[in-house]
Design a protein that fits this description.
Layout: H1 2-5, H2 9-21, H3 23-35, E1 43-47, H4 53-61, E2 66-71, H5 74-83, H6 85-89, E3 93-97, E4 110-116, H7 125-135, E5 136-146, H8 155-171, E6 175-182, E7 188-194
Parallel strand pairs: 1-2, 1-4, 2-3, 4-5
Antiparallel strand pairs: 5-7, 6-7
Helix pairs in contact: 3-4
Protein backbone atom coordinates (compact mmCIF):
# COMPACT_ATOMS: atom_id res chain seq x y z
CA UNK A 1 0.00 0.00 0.00
CA UNK A 2 2.84 2.39 0.85
CA UNK A 3 4.43 1.85 -2.57
CA UNK A 4 1.03 2.19 -4.27
CA UNK A 5 0.53 5.56 -2.60
CA UNK A 6 4.06 6.86 -3.16
CA UNK A 7 6.15 4.65 -5.48
CA UNK A 8 9.89 5.18 -5.08
CA UNK A 9 13.14 3.45 -5.84
CA UNK A 10 13.49 0.11 -7.61
CA UNK A 11 10.43 -1.38 -5.92
CA UNK A 12 8.33 1.67 -6.79
CA UNK A 13 9.46 1.49 -10.39
CA UNK A 14 8.43 -2.16 -10.57
CA UNK A 15 5.05 -1.30 -9.01
CA UNK A 16 4.53 1.40 -11.64
CA UNK A 17 5.25 -0.95 -14.52
CA UNK A 18 2.98 -3.57 -12.95
CA UNK A 19 0.17 -1.00 -12.77
CA UNK A 20 0.79 -0.01 -16.40
CA UNK A 21 0.76 -3.60 -17.65
CA UNK A 22 -2.29 -4.75 -15.71
CA UNK A 23 -5.15 -4.92 -18.20
CA UNK A 24 -7.79 -3.79 -15.71
CA UNK A 25 -5.80 -0.66 -14.86
CA UNK A 26 -5.43 0.24 -18.53
CA UNK A 27 -9.15 -0.29 -19.13
CA UNK A 28 -10.06 1.79 -16.08
CA UNK A 29 -7.88 4.76 -17.04
CA UNK A 30 -8.80 4.82 -20.73
CA UNK A 31 -12.49 4.52 -19.80
CA UNK A 32 -12.20 7.42 -17.35
CA UNK A 33 -10.60 9.65 -19.99
CA UNK A 34 -13.38 8.78 -22.46
CA UNK A 35 -16.02 9.98 -19.99
CA UNK A 36 -14.52 13.48 -19.93
CA UNK A 37 -15.10 13.95 -23.70
CA UNK A 38 -11.78 15.70 -24.23
CA UNK A 39 -11.69 18.07 -27.20
CA UNK A 40 -8.57 18.76 -29.32
CA UNK A 41 -7.94 22.20 -27.77
CA UNK A 42 -8.66 21.24 -24.15
CA UNK A 43 -6.32 21.94 -21.24
CA UNK A 44 -6.53 19.00 -18.86
CA UNK A 45 -4.94 18.01 -15.57
CA UNK A 46 -4.46 14.65 -13.88
CA UNK A 47 -3.70 14.48 -10.17
CA UNK A 48 -1.64 11.42 -9.25
CA UNK A 49 -1.00 10.10 -12.75
CA UNK A 50 1.11 7.07 -11.73
CA UNK A 51 2.74 5.40 -14.76
CA UNK A 52 0.93 7.81 -17.09
CA UNK A 53 -1.69 5.70 -18.86
CA UNK A 54 -4.38 8.41 -18.69
CA UNK A 55 -1.86 11.17 -19.50
CA UNK A 56 -0.95 9.38 -22.73
CA UNK A 57 -4.63 8.92 -23.56
CA UNK A 58 -5.34 12.60 -22.87
CA UNK A 59 -2.47 13.55 -25.19
CA UNK A 60 -3.99 11.40 -27.91
CA UNK A 61 -7.20 13.49 -27.77
CA UNK A 62 -5.97 16.99 -26.83
CA UNK A 63 -3.81 17.27 -29.94
CA UNK A 64 -3.84 21.08 -29.95
CA UNK A 65 -4.22 21.59 -26.21
CA UNK A 66 -2.10 20.89 -23.14
CA UNK A 67 -2.01 17.98 -20.73
CA UNK A 68 -0.73 18.68 -17.23
CA UNK A 69 0.03 16.10 -14.59
CA UNK A 70 1.21 16.20 -11.00
CA UNK A 71 2.40 13.25 -8.95
CA UNK A 72 4.41 13.31 -5.75
CA UNK A 73 6.53 10.34 -6.90
CA UNK A 74 9.66 11.19 -8.89
CA UNK A 75 9.66 7.56 -10.06
CA UNK A 76 6.21 7.94 -11.62
CA UNK A 77 7.13 11.26 -13.23
CA UNK A 78 10.00 9.52 -15.01
CA UNK A 79 7.85 6.58 -16.12
CA UNK A 80 5.00 8.75 -17.37
CA UNK A 81 7.42 11.05 -19.22
CA UNK A 82 8.87 8.06 -21.06
CA UNK A 83 5.38 6.82 -21.94
CA UNK A 84 4.47 10.20 -23.51
CA UNK A 85 7.97 11.15 -24.66
CA UNK A 86 6.96 12.59 -28.04
CA UNK A 87 4.22 14.79 -26.53
CA UNK A 88 6.60 15.93 -23.77
CA UNK A 89 9.16 16.95 -26.39
CA UNK A 90 6.42 18.80 -28.29
CA UNK A 91 5.53 20.65 -25.07
CA UNK A 92 1.97 19.36 -25.14
CA UNK A 93 2.44 17.24 -21.99
CA UNK A 94 3.82 18.87 -18.82
CA UNK A 95 4.55 16.60 -15.85
CA UNK A 96 5.58 17.89 -12.43
CA UNK A 97 6.59 16.25 -9.19
CA UNK A 98 4.22 17.96 -6.75
CA UNK A 99 1.53 17.20 -4.21
CA UNK A 100 -2.13 18.10 -4.53
CA UNK A 101 -1.84 20.58 -1.65
CA UNK A 102 1.07 22.42 -3.37
CA UNK A 103 0.05 22.60 -6.99
CA UNK A 104 2.12 24.56 -9.53
CA UNK A 105 0.60 27.22 -11.75
CA UNK A 106 -1.09 25.98 -14.91
CA UNK A 107 -1.62 29.40 -16.49
CA UNK A 108 -5.02 29.71 -18.13
CA UNK A 109 -8.10 27.94 -16.69
CA UNK A 110 -8.40 24.19 -17.17
CA UNK A 111 -11.18 22.42 -19.06
CA UNK A 112 -11.05 19.09 -17.24
CA UNK A 113 -9.47 17.42 -14.21
CA UNK A 114 -9.06 13.70 -13.47
CA UNK A 115 -8.02 11.83 -10.34
CA UNK A 116 -7.94 8.02 -10.32
CA UNK A 117 -7.74 6.24 -6.96
CA UNK A 118 -5.84 9.15 -5.42
CA UNK A 119 -8.40 11.13 -3.39
CA UNK A 120 -7.88 8.56 -0.61
CA UNK A 121 -4.36 9.92 -0.13
CA UNK A 122 -5.24 13.64 -0.12
CA UNK A 123 -5.12 15.71 3.07
CA UNK A 124 -8.45 17.54 3.59
CA UNK A 125 -9.93 16.37 0.25
CA UNK A 126 -12.89 18.78 0.27
CA UNK A 127 -10.58 21.78 0.54
CA UNK A 128 -8.38 20.30 -2.20
CA UNK A 129 -11.46 19.97 -4.42
CA UNK A 130 -12.41 23.60 -3.77
CA UNK A 131 -8.92 24.61 -4.89
CA UNK A 132 -9.23 22.48 -8.01
CA UNK A 133 -12.61 24.06 -8.79
CA UNK A 134 -10.92 27.47 -8.80
CA UNK A 135 -8.56 26.17 -11.50
CA UNK A 136 -11.42 25.13 -13.79
CA UNK A 137 -13.09 27.37 -16.31
CA UNK A 138 -16.84 27.97 -15.80
CA UNK A 139 -18.62 24.75 -16.80
CA UNK A 140 -15.31 22.87 -16.62
CA UNK A 141 -15.59 19.25 -15.58
CA UNK A 142 -13.97 16.89 -13.10
CA UNK A 143 -13.89 13.10 -12.82
CA UNK A 144 -13.00 11.23 -9.63
CA UNK A 145 -12.48 7.50 -10.06
CA UNK A 146 -12.51 4.81 -7.38
CA UNK A 147 -11.83 1.11 -7.65
CA UNK A 148 -11.57 -0.15 -4.06
CA UNK A 149 -8.58 -2.44 -3.54
CA UNK A 150 -9.33 -3.54 0.01
CA UNK A 151 -9.55 -7.32 0.60
CA UNK A 152 -13.05 -8.59 -0.15
CA UNK A 153 -14.13 -5.42 -1.98
CA UNK A 154 -17.47 -5.83 -3.78
CA UNK A 155 -19.86 -3.72 -5.82
CA UNK A 156 -21.33 -2.44 -2.55
CA UNK A 157 -17.85 -1.23 -1.55
CA UNK A 158 -17.60 0.66 -4.84
CA UNK A 159 -21.08 2.17 -4.44
CA UNK A 160 -20.17 3.42 -0.96
CA UNK A 161 -16.92 4.91 -2.27
CA UNK A 162 -18.84 6.65 -5.07
CA UNK A 163 -21.27 8.16 -2.58
CA UNK A 164 -18.37 9.46 -0.49
CA UNK A 165 -16.87 11.11 -3.57
CA UNK A 166 -20.25 12.64 -4.48
CA UNK A 167 -20.57 14.09 -0.99
CA UNK A 168 -17.10 15.64 -1.21
CA UNK A 169 -17.79 17.17 -4.62
CA UNK A 170 -21.09 18.62 -3.42
CA UNK A 171 -19.41 20.17 -0.38
CA UNK A 172 -16.76 21.65 -2.67
CA UNK A 173 -19.43 23.38 -4.78
CA UNK A 174 -19.56 21.18 -7.89
CA UNK A 175 -22.90 20.53 -9.59
CA UNK A 176 -24.55 18.17 -12.10
CA UNK A 177 -23.09 15.10 -10.44
CA UNK A 178 -23.50 11.73 -12.12
CA UNK A 179 -21.94 8.30 -11.63
CA UNK A 180 -20.79 5.75 -14.20
CA UNK A 181 -19.68 2.18 -13.47
CA UNK A 182 -17.21 -0.09 -15.22
CA UNK A 183 -17.82 -3.77 -14.54
CA UNK A 184 -14.41 -4.98 -13.43
CA UNK A 185 -13.64 -6.99 -10.28
CA UNK A 186 -14.36 -5.07 -8.13
CA UNK A 187 -16.38 -2.57 -10.19
CA UNK A 188 -15.02 0.91 -10.87
CA UNK A 189 -17.01 4.07 -10.16
CA UNK A 190 -16.39 7.38 -11.92
CA UNK A 191 -18.11 10.38 -10.36
CA UNK A 192 -18.36 13.27 -12.80
CA UNK A 193 -19.30 16.85 -11.95
CA UNK A 194 -19.21 20.37 -13.37
CA UNK A 195 -17.94 23.71 -12.13
CA UNK A 196 -21.15 25.76 -12.15
CA UNK A 197 -20.90 28.52 -14.78
CA UNK A 198 -22.80 31.08 -12.70
CA UNK A 199 -21.22 30.32 -9.34
CA UNK A 200 -17.49 31.09 -9.33
CA UNK A 201 -15.36 29.49 -6.63
Amino acid sequence: MRQAGHPQGIVGSAVGWLFALRGSNRRRNIWAVSLLNVRPTDRVLEIGFGPGIAVAEFARHATQGHVFGVDHSRTMVRQAARRSAAAVRARRVHLTQASVERLPSFGDPLDAILAVNSVLFWPDPVERLRELRRLLRPAGRIALVSQPRSPGATRDTTVRAAQELQDMLTQAGFTRLRVEFLELDPPVACVLADNPPDNPA
